[in-house]
Amino acid sequence: MYTIISKDGTEIAYEKQGNGPAVVLVASALADHMGASQLAEHLAKNFTVYNYDRRGRGNSSNTLPYDVGREVEDIEAIINEAGGEVSLFGSSSGAVLALEAASKLGNKVTKLFMYEPPFIINDSRPPVPADYVQHLNNLIEAGKRSEAVEYFMIAAAGVPAEFVEYMKMDPSWQAMEGLAHTLAYDGLVMGTTQQGNSLPANKWNVEAKAMVMTGENSSPFFHDAAKALSELLSNVEHSTLSGQDHAAIMMAPAELAEAITEFLNK
Fold first, then answer.
1. Which helix (H) or strand (E) is 215 found in, with range?
2. Which of 26, 87, 123, 146 is the most buried (most CB within 10 A)?
3. Where in the chain is the domain with CATH 3.40.50.1820?
4. What's the confidence (pLDDT) of residue 223?
């Protein structure tokens, strides 16, 4: 992996592969660059793909206290390394971070592709608790990493508690425990947008052409969120990925890459 130094001195690690216009992949909660490795391979057939570890994850370092603005600076550092202009892709909370970066970085972001930003804008599912971030931080400070992952799965991801018990038996649970300290970071990226209220009207000012996509089989709240966001942005398309759900980045990377490629080549 390559490394760059972000504005505050944090070392950001990334993989670079392929040739063509630059695309930066922004990871979701509980994921480092490995979560998008197959997607990156498919995209690298047409683009130069920068697949990086967000701060505090994988091979990247961390600088405290955390601030969402520093994550935008990390993306900007990669953009500068890539030549000054890129397209951004983000999944789930990573889509919201990509949206934030596109809003802050102006014409450095030429196109923006968001897969299922997890906004909760109505009563189609329970809201995330108001003290969600603080509770996560309390669990991490107490060394309760597994409990933090479980809390995220139930309170934020909406996984039924009985399913979580089965998830703990999978080896991937230990890897998620290793990233548990970053769950509060994604909570701060989401801010108040998971409380069941309308999206803030003037929060994002995006110059780039954007796509917000949902999986056909995903929960209704994802579709509601995408529709609401598409009504806020000025130059945006809203589409559906046939036969897929929130896990498409892992379960259907070829199909997702095809949709991304089609959009970026327009």
1. strand 209-215
2. 26
3. 2-119+197-264
4. 98
Two tokens at 98? 């990509």
Answer for the pair 33, 6: CB distance below 8 angstroms, yes or no.
no
User: In the structure encoding, which two tokens stand for residue 69, read together?
Assistant: 């603005």
Question: Which two structure tokens, joined as six digits, stand for 198?
Answer: 């309308």
Q: What pTM was estimated for this model as a whole?
A: 0.97
Nearest to 59 by CA among 20, 33, 77: 33
CATH topology for 2-119+197-264 is Rossmann fold (3.40.50)
* Rounded Cα–Cα distance for residues 171 and 210 (Å): 36
Rounded Cα–Cα distance for residues 172 and 177 (Å): 9
Query: ∠ CA(10), CA(190), CA(207), 5° rounding?
Result: 80
In the block, residue with structure tokens 């969600």: 132
Average pLDDT over residues 157-161: 94
Q: Which residues are CB-contacts of 54 (< 8 A; sequence separation ≥ 6)?
A: 26, 27, 32, 60, 71, 74, 94, 97, 182, 185
CA 180-256-164 angle, 5° bins: 35
- Give bridge partners of residue 87 from the DSSP assignment: 23, 111
For 109, the token pair is 């972001």
pLDDT tens track for 228-243? 999 999 999 999 999 9
Contact 78, 14 (CB under 8 A): yes
Q: What is the structure's pLDDT at 115?
A: 98
Place of tokens 């909760």: 120
Give residue 66's Cα distance to chain centre: 16
The residue among 125, 225, 139, 128 whose CA lies nearest residue 182 is 139
